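Thread: "does anyone have the structure for this chain?"

Original post by V.I.:
We have the sequence but no experimental structure in hand. Need at least a predicted one for the grant figures.
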Amino acid sequence: MSDPNPPPDAADIMTIVHEAVGDIELEPAEKREVWRFIQRELPYLWSQRTSYFILGSYRNPYIRHLRAVQNELTKQLGAYPFIMGDLIELPTERLNTFDIMFSLLATYSDYIVGIFEKESGGEASELGEIDDSPYFDKSYVFPRDYSWVTDANLESKYHVIQAALEIAFTDELSEDKIQAKVDSVIERAQDTGVNIADQDVWDVITVRKDEGGEPATYSWVHLNKFRKFELHDRCFSWTTEEELRTAVADLPSPTPRPDWEKDEEL
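Reply from O.Q.:
Generated one for you, tokens below.
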């Protein structure tokens, strides 16, 4: 196999790579593998299609929600939604492969979309990468069961559902007590003007129990990062896959651009 040739903007790309590895000098074989990855994957990001870099857990059952987002975005003409786990991996044992791939893909993607359902796993570190420059301005987060902690008055349907899920998954409560407490939460919320139906809440509880998954919980650090995105209108809470698919519709629509415009950005 012939050695790949560096692209015209090789200097900019290597700056990104060196920042990812901490200025470690790449060996010739490692540099060739980086070029192969770039030649294989980055042309999709340099094309006229609008690219969406989808982050989240690759493990079951979480991966299906990443696929749901990918499928939803694929329906849009001119979109290229992708998951890093589907791409070829850099075959380097010495270097931090993930950091190199993530930095290149995040830099040259048009948008970054993070799907969060828990506070552990690789997606936790990804959240720490995208909540600040240079990726923050093009990133959107979709945390499941998220609601900002200061609202003790059940201000939105997500606070109602979160409270109801916590009650429903409390082991020491009997079914009768769960029913009474959830109904009380719904009634209090409706009295304060929250537009939510009793059946909507119970449907979410039923689905979650059928899935075998407890309510998503997040650390104070996660909640604050989500809040930062929320204040910039780029955080969308969800409880069911249908809500997630609907929320994805709020992402910027694909706006194909001539290649020369993307070249100028590089």
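V.I.: this helps a lot. The two ends are 29 Å apart (CA to CA).
O.Q.: and Residues 16 and 103 are 7 Å apart (CA to CA).
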